[in-house]
Amino acid sequence: MKTFSILSLLAVFCLACESPTPSPTRKKTASAIQDPANKPNPYVTVDLSPLDVTYFPVNFPAQLSPTDRNKPLARVLYSRPHLQGRHIFQDVVPAGQPWRLGANEATELELFEPATIQNKRIPEGRYTLYAIPQAGEWTIVINRKLYTWGLDIDPALDVARFTLPVQTPDTPLEYFTIAFMGTGNEAELLIGWDNSLVKLPIRFDP
Predict the structure, then answer these.
(1) Which among 100, 183, 113, 188 is positioned nearest to 145, based on CA atoms?
(2) I need a labelling partner for 106 at 20 to 30 A (CA). Which of 66, 72, 140, 142 fits?
(3) Domain-by-domain residue ranges, the chain?
């Protein structure tokens, strides 16, 4: 009888000393996740239209083999604004007016090899790229003026202008997009936003 009592006391003591079983971790709900906009970066203002880069060959240099060239044929540097409920080519970008193809600094095209665009030979080099959008067609302009905020045009520095038909993407593009497509020496520079899309064919002549 005495042994049973001692064992019972020990069992109660052990149970009292055990850590309580932790409750399952709750998944964060949408309301529990703080909006990053409410947590400013202490070192630099977070840009809502971030800088992006697109290369040709596509996905350079991630998909290069050891035998491939060690530099791309071209790249474009641009900022990516997004719709935020706006109708871009009705509310923001006026028809017939020059547009910097993005936000912030002027969009830049860098050719690492000479290229031919609509039978026009463009030497290798670094250029500004901008557009003049119309309802049914866009004019894409290559210009030599670099390092400008926004679009500070000097038509005397235009290298070439190309007229492209406007296409409609399968779904509206929330984010302004510039991307190279193609293989080998044949590329298309896709430029699209909202319900408008143009493609600039480029052939490289290394």
Answers:
(1) 100
(2) 72
(3) 52-204
Selection from 76, 54, 128 nearest residue 98 by Cα: 128
Rounded Cα gap, residues 81 and 195, in angstroms: 15
Q: Answer whether 120's CB lies under 8 Å from 160's CB.
A: yes
Encode pLDDT of 96-137 as tens digits: 899 999 999 999 999 999 999 999 999 999 999 999 999 899
Residue 102 CA to residue 93 CA, distance in Å, equals 10
pLDDT digits (tens, 9 = 90+) for 11-58: 444 444 444 444 444 444 333 344 555 677 788 887 788 888 999 998
Q: What is the pTM of this model?
A: 0.75
Q: How far apart are CA 38 and CA 184, in angstroms?
A: 46
> Residue 88 corresponds to which amino acid?
I
